[in-house]
Write a structure and sequence with these properties.
The strands form 6 sheets. A 7-stranded mixed sheet has the order 14-15-16-13-12-18-19, sandwiched between helices. Strands 9-8-7-10-11-21 form a 6-stranded mixed sheet, sandwiched between helices. It has 493 residues and is α/β, with parallel strands linked by helices. The longest helix is centred in the first third of the chain and has 25 residues. The chain has 15 helices and 22 strands. The structure holds nicotinamide-adenine-dinucleotide (NAD). The site of nicotinamide-adenine-dinucleotide has 29 residues, from helix 7 and helix 8.
Length: 493
């Protein structure tokens, strides 16, 4: 069992205000790895008070971007030094294959480095001059940290999702409270240790673990939080939006998806199948932008399906730390049961299972599920329309480009979409026609910290990553000066 030091509040590891804990489990063995303090309202109040004091009275928001960037680079260095250990911790808690966990941790370090650079660049343009039509006036516009940020994250990329919020918030000069997912709390605890080692002033970063309905809700409802950044499911996002409405809290939401991949008949089958497989089976399909709806031009469908089924059957399933594993267990029992139920619902509504749908042979424990390919579902069926969040891909055919676009956009989600064809003009047309925030051409999933990430429609509000991610944590202020000693002339003539 791993021993947990408590919550990280005001630069110290603090015992929880009550003795309640919850267990985090290894999804490959179903064994408990650690008992985690279940943070409550008192813990959140203490963490927000520390962040408030650090913002209002501490040095962090007043530092130059270069100084803050130095701290972020130090965090990136420590993460890189602890890369192997952190990747193994992620495998233990989440179940993902080690090479994918290693990518996550490398990207986590890369995210801190990227925002270190953006923090430094903030010093170069402290304010922007605005040309006004009235010569007696001049205006400048500056960006300021928004204040105390609250961040709530999911379990699918535990440390990386923390970095997507912590790095830009700290770069901007905000102080913050992070509430990780109760399902995968371990690498966020490691991040708090790393921030402690990097020597950030007390209260700048605070961590409270806990359940969503208790610690999460207390954070969202807290009056001293100026900004709430959330990544998770649509139902939770909707609740958060309603709670935030009470005090007009600034929120950003990164929510679910049901991302289409449109494949035209001139595509290379081998390449198409590889991108489909990566798109839906990496991280066990527990990816917001996963390639969960594949649309194939009719004439290519039989050959593509045959190849996809035969390749899916060959995938090596196993414990994430085993060499060669491509598909690990789903994150926990609840998620496993949800995915099984979704497949059953699909079949009840008329879908066929081309492969998968079962616990793989030889696995008596762990939340393992075969890579699954579903066909023959209706366009309005549950499995085609709703996020399954598991290794389950749904395939349908189309006849024309217009039909493919209409089918791709027939969704309440709009996070990501992909298109494959040898015809570049067609790819361009389709890419522009997608109602989605992230579009891939001749590939699916590659994600870069430089480019904006976020969705249309119910997939969320706002963008993370790149300069857009930094802007989430900045307020914009105009200062307008009257530059003449003459009266204004409203009543003094
Ligand atoms: P979830 O909504 O169940 O939980 C996410 C977080 O919200 C957790 O930390 C949880 O404790 C907290 N929470 C739950 N109820 C809350 C409440 N009432 N008040 C405040 N906080 C609360 O989501 P999940 O199952 O952890 O994650 C999977 C979902 O996340 C999927 O829908 C996926 O598409 C989405 N996701 C989106 C992105 C993106 O960038 N758009 C990235 C990763 C995951």
């Amino acid at each position: 069992m791993i021993t947990v030091k408590g919550h990280y509040i005001n630069g110290q590891w603090q015992a929880p205000s009550n003795n309640e804990t919850f267990a985090t489990i290894n999804p490959a063995t179903e064994q408990i790895i650690a008992d985690i303090p279940a943070g409550n309202l008192d813990d959140i109040n203490a963490a927000v008070a520390a962040a408030r004091q650090a913002f209002d009275l501490g040095p962090w928001p007043k530092m130059t971007g270069k100084e803050r960037g130095g701290y972020l680079r130090k965090i990136a260095e420590i993460i890189t030094r602890r890369l192997d250990e952190l990747a193994k911790l992620e495998v233990l808690d989440n179940g993902k294959p080690y090479p994918e966990a290693k990518w996550d941790i490398e990207d986590t370090a890369g995210t801190f480095e990227f925002y270190a650079k953006l923090a430094e660049e903030m010093d170069e343009t402290p304010e922007q001059h605005i040309q006004l039509p009235e010569p007696d006036f001049s205006s400048t516009v500056s960006k300021e940290p928004i204040g105390v940020a609250g961040a709530i994250i999911p379990w699918n990329f535990p440390m990386l999702m923390a970095a997507w919020k912590v790095a830009p918030a700290l770069a901007a000069g905000c102080t913050m409270v992070l509430k990780p997912s109760e399902i995968t709390p371990l690498t966020a605890l490691a991040l708090a240790e790393i921030i402690e080692e990097a020597g950030l002033p007390a209260g700048v970063f605070n961590l409270v673990n806990g359940l969503g309905k208790e610690a999460g809700q207390a954070l969202v409802e807290h009056q001293d939080i100026d900004k709430l950044a959330f990544t998770g499911s649509v139902p939770t996002g909707s609740k958060i939006m309603a709670m935030a409405a009470r005090d007009i809290k600034n929120i950003s939401l990164e929510l679910g998806g049901k991302s289409p991949f449109v494949i035209f008949a001139d595509s290379d089958i081998e390449k198409a199948v590889e991108w489909i497989m990566f798109g839906i089976f990496w991280n066990q399909g527990q990816v917001c932008s996963a390639t969960s709806r594949v649309l194939v031009e009719e004439s290519l469908y039989p050959a593509l399906l045959e190849r996809l089924v035969s390749e899916a059957k060959k995938i090596t399933i196993g414990e994430g730390n085993q060499d060669g594993t491509l598909l690990g267990p789903l994150v926990n029992k609840d998620q496993y049961q949800k995915v099984i139920a979704a497949i059953e619902k699909g079949v009840q509504q008329g879908a066929s299972i081309a492969t998968g749908g079962q616990r793989p042979q030889g696995f008596d424990q762990g939340y393992y599920l075969e890579p699954t390919v579903l066909t023959d579902m209706d366009e309005d069926s549950w499995v085609w329309q709703e996020e399954i969040f598991g290794p389950v891909v749904c395939i349908k055919t189309f006849k024309t480009e217009q039909q493919a676009i209409a089918m791709a956009n027939n969704s309440r989600f709009g996070l990501a979409a992909a298109v494959m064809s040898k015809d570049e003009e067609r790819c361009d047309r389709v890419a522009k026609a997608f109602r989605a925030g992230i579009v891939w051409v001749n590939c699916s999933q590659p994600t870069f910290v430089e480019a904006p990430w976020g969705g249309y429609k119910q997939s969320g509000i706002g963008r993370e990553l790149g300069e857009w991610g930094l802007n989430n944590y900045l307020e914009t202020k105009q200062i307008t000066r009257f530059n003449t000693t003459e009266p204004w002339g409203w009543y003094i003539k």
